[in-house]
């Protein structure tokens, strides 16, 4: 028996029991992209008209963002498979510390609040387990657009001093292709006066999804997905309907899990060119990949060691570095995996070595000597993508592993273990009783306290 991940009590007292070495076979449905949904929800603040979002995933990060929008006065109408949003009654231009600290992505609201209301007060989003996560590029760009920014006592106060309370288009060159800064500045510039050009912009698919939706709302944005984006400010943005793109990181995680268990699965829907760098590395490591329309199939008979260097899109995504490291830990030969985006994204190495992997880390680079097999262990996932990497490792290990840290996992993966058990994995989600014994979560229990979680 396994527990449907939606029946959740406090996530810190839950863990997954995984019996490894099961072959996976079948199809996995990919959910809507977390990192697109979060910024699209923030962008809903830019219009007073109805915005309808389809394919928004059921994640604890998304629940937090919805709560933040409601706190600002936004009306949210949740239907089965879509979300109706209306910001006409938006009455607050500030987000207190406990909300921002609960979800870093809430900082995406600064651009829309400032450009719509002429003012925005948000707590500084802190760092997290994977890095300091500074926001100086966001601040520099907003100042270039004419905002007056004051930062003190851990809070950002942004105002527009000119009489019209309108931001002014500007030429902005980012020092690094920051995803969040690019998205913040696109949203701020969409209602500014005049033209804004962002050079060295991030090119991620989630930014392309944001620009596609904003243009449907009446924005004039050109060059999404390239490193030079032009935004001609407009006076007003309108409502629209929009379907969130599939989550390329979720899809990539399942493909890596299939490769690690020498399985044959299909993931869909996906947009294949969002995964080019990952598919190339999986092929180089020995997997057979077949693309048919919006589905990708993988068949793996053996795993060869390959080297990875994470990079901004279209390079190898940092969000799949930990899952791919788990794969390389059982590859034939030596591999080198360099993390170039975040300064502390190697939290999965120690637990992998605890399971019998042979990995050394120097200067944010993992030097991996592949081993034949990992050992089942009780391990803790320390952040969102490390938790997924631990599950992949446990799927390959002989015996029963226990994985804790589900408060991280459920932030970014919808029904992760359910999707795996549906294609042959042996996983149950259990609730640790106070005497520390485990009992499967009651499938039918109705009183479900909301999910707790920690931000990345
Ligand atoms: C987004 O984070 C994603 N989050 C991250 O996904 C993803 O890993 C990251 O982009 C990179 O692709 C969301 O979209 C909600 P960045 P973001 O600004 O916008 C440095 C996941 O697992 N930087 O592109 O915060 C920064 O320190 C999460 O789903 C500055 O130096 O990423 C980092 O080293 C984790 N100054 C690098 O750039 C700045 O002002 C990339 O950061 C901004 C960023």
Name the CATH superfamily assignment of the largest domain: Enolpyruvate transferase domain
So how many helices? Answer: 14
Task: Supply the number of structural domains.
Answer: 2
User: Describe the biggest sheet?
Assistant: 5 strands, mixed
Q: How big a fraction of the residues is strand?
A: 25-35%
The CATH architecture of the largest domain can be given as Alpha-beta prism
Please identify the top-level CATH class of the largest domain: Alpha Beta
Radius of gyration, in Å, reads 22 Å
How much helix, percentage-wise, in residues? 25-40%
**What are the distinct ligands in this entry?**
ligand EPZ
Q: How many E-type strands?
A: 25
Mean pLDDT over the residues? 92
Structural class by SSE content? alpha+beta
Instruction: Quote the CATH topology of the largest domain.
Output: UDP-n-acetylglucosamine1-carboxyvinyl-transferase, Chain
Instruction: Give the end-to-end Cα distance, rounded to a whole number of Å.
Output: 31 Å
Overall outline: globular
The side-by-side strand order for the widest beta sheet comes to 22-23-1-24-25
Q: List unreliable stretches of 5+ residues.
A: 1-7, 442-456
Provide a quick synopsis of the model.
The protein has 456 residues and is an alpha+beta fold. It contains 14 helices and 25 strands.
């Amino acid at each position: 028996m396994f527990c449907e991940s939606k029946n959740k009590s406090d996530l810190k007292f839950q863990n997954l029991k995984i019996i490894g070495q099961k072959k996976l076979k079948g199809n996995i449905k990919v959910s809507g992209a977390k990192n697109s949904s979060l910024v699209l929800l923030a962008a809903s603040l830019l219009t007073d008209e109805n915005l309808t979002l389809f394919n928004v995933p059921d994640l604890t990060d998304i629940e937090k963002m919805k709560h933040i929008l409601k706190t600002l006065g936004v009306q949210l109408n949740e239907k089965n498979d879509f979300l109706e949003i209306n910001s006409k009654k938006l009455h607050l231009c500030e987000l207190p510390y406990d909300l921002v600290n609960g979800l870093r992505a809430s900082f995406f609201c600064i651009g829309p609040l400032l450009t719509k209301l002429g003012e925005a007060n948000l707590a500084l989003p802190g760092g997290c387990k994977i890095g300091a996560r500074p926001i100086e590029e966001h601040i520099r760009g907003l100042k270039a657009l004419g905002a007056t920014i004051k930062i003190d006592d851990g809070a950002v106060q942004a105002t527009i001093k000119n009489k019209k309370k309108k931001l002014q288009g500007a030429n902005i060159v980012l020092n690094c292709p920051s995803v969040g800064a690019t998205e913040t500045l696109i949203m701020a510039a969409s209602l500014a006066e005049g033209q804004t050009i962002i050079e060295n912009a991030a090119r991620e698919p989630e930014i392309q999804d944001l620009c596609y939706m904003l243009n449907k709302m009446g924005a004039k944005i050109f060059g999404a997905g390239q490193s030079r984006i032009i935004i001609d400010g407009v006076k007003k943005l309108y409502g629209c309907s929009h379907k969130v793109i599939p989550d390329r990181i979720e899809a990539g995680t399942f493909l890596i899990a299939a490769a690690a268990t020498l399985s044959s699965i299909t993931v869909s829907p996906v947009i294949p060119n969002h995964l080019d760098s990952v598919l190339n590395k999986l092929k180089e490591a020995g997997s057979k990949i077949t693309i048919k329309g919006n589905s990708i199939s993988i068949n793996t008979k053996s795993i060869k060691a390959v080297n990875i260097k994470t990079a901004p899109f279209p390079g190898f995504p940092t969000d799949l570095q930990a899952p791919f490291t788990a794969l390389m830990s059982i590859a034939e030969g030596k591999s080198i995996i360099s993390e170039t985006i975040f300064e502390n994204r190697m939290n999965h190495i120690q637990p992998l070595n605890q399971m019998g992997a042979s990995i050394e880390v120097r200067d944010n680079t993992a030097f991996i000597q592949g081993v034949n097999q990992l050992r089942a262990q009780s391990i803790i996932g320390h952040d969102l993508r490390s938790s997924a990497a631990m599950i992949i490792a446990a799927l390959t290990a002989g015996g029963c592993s226990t994985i804790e840290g589900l408060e991280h996992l459920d932030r970014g993966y919808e029904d992760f273990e359910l999707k795996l058990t549906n294609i042959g994995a042996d996983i149950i989600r259990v609730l640790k009783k106070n005497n520390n014994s485990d009992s499967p979560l009651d499938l039918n229990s109705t009183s479900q306290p909301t999910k707790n979680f920690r931000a990345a």
